[in-house]
Amino acid sequence: MTALALALALAAGPGVSSRLPAGPLDLYRIAWMRPVVGPQAMESRPLEPGGVAVDPETGYAVFGTRDGWVHALRPDGTVAWELRTAGSFWAPPAIDHGVAYVGCTDGRLYALAMATGKELWRYDAKEELGTRPAVAGGTVFVMSLQDTLFAVDAKTGAWKWHHRREARAGFTVRGAAWPVVRGDTVWAGYSDGWVAALDVANGAARWERTVAPAGDYLDVDAIQLDGRHLYATAFSGAVLAMDAATGDPIWAFRAPGAARLVLGRGALFAVTSSSVHALDPAAGSVLWTAPLGGAPGGGAPVIAGPWVLVPAGQGGLRFLEASSGRTLRVLDPGTGISSTPGVGGERVYVLSNGGDLLALDLR
Question: Are 236 and 218 within 8 A, CB to CB?
């Protein structure tokens, strides 16, 4: 055992592996790796499309896995608590005021006490829930994979309202845009290429607009809000900026296979099926374009320090320099990374497709 591996084994909690893939020490140090999912029957290529949320109070990393479990791990890699569900997960949880809100494909939205994992309530939407919830003003908003936005009371789990668009006939891209909320408005994207701004109190539409160019897959898979601008991707070939209050178009950038977005470091980063584009948020002009080196599997990019971290499926987790698009490092534990990383200060948590959680300490 090397000195580094010995140090990791001593520092990590019981059950945490010290057999770690090599990490580039100038960008991050792999603090530990913990297997959380074993081999599943009839599974040739495992996929974990969910992601990790980090609680700022406890430091716990909270995430769901394809075998139906919700896990909370302490910063040393030991298990704080776990909960069994009947589904899988397509997005990270949301954490708000000591509660983890978890949407699951078993159709249920779970509210779990962060400290103990105790189930506070569950809401049965009877549709597969596939987004990170948004929490604001005492309401939890979550989108189903069947194009329904649900609004649920954050304290009791009682239904408040829902807004549904009929799912487009034929094939769609698996996944959904995470809802965003500010003030008295919540915005949602749909698989038929529409975006809607809704009243948080009752779900009444303030505006609805089709944004997707003509094509086979019209899915709006990501929306982001920044000031007066609402940004959206359409898989049929566009990244768009709209006036958040009216839905009026501001600019459009042609991008076939546009899927995920993240804002930060003075740019809008758009991930497509083959590349990453950094765009000027005000004008939509291209700052840089970088090849992806893989195909995203549902997870969203995140900003961590001066880098954009992009889960690229079998292409691993790619560390791109935010200012230039240069690929600095690729983390690939052997099974690929399709989930959304969780960032808590200088610590990044990454769930591999093989079901291992890795803790990275940024340099």
Answer: yes
Q: Is 1 in the same domain as 82?
A: no
Sheet hosting strand 205-210, strand order edge to edge: 180-182, 185-189, 194-199, 205-210
Hey, CA dihedral for 12, 14, 15, 17, is it positive or negative? positive
CATH number at residue 317: 2.40.10.480
- How far apart CA 123 and CA 144 sit, in angstroms, is 13
φ/ψ of 9, rounded to 5, equals: -65, -35
Looking at 110, 131, 164, the residue that finishes a domain is 164
Task: Decide if 189 contacts 222 (C-beta within 8 A).
Answer: yes
Q: Are residues 18 and 54 in the same domain?
A: no
Amino acid letter, residue 76? D
Tokens of 94: 């949301």
User: What pLDDT, on the 0 to 100 scale, is given for residue 172?
Assistant: 59
Do 322 and 345 belong together in one domain? yes
Confidence check: pLDDT of 171 > 60: no
Q: What is the pLDDT of residues 300-338, one digit of tens each?
A: 999 999 999 999 999 999 999 999 999 999 999 999 999
Is position 262 within any domain?
no
Q: Please tell me the total count of domains within the chain.
A: 2
The domain boundary, picked from 137, 164, 191, lies at 164
Rounded-to-integer distance, Cα 354 and Cα 358, Å: 11
Whether residues 68 and 3 share a domain: the answer is: no
Find the domain containing 343 and state its range.
Answer: 1-35+294-363
Cβ atoms of 224 and 240 within 8 Å: the answer is no
**Predicted confidence (pLDDT) at residue 40 exceeds the cutoff of 90:** no
pLDDT surpassing 70 at residue 77: yes
* Interatomic CA distance for residues 175 and 352, integer angstroms: 18
207-259: pLDDT as tens digits: 999 999 999 889 999 999 999 999 999 999 999 999 999 999 999 999 999 99
Among 106-115, 232-241, 294-303, the least confident range: 294-303
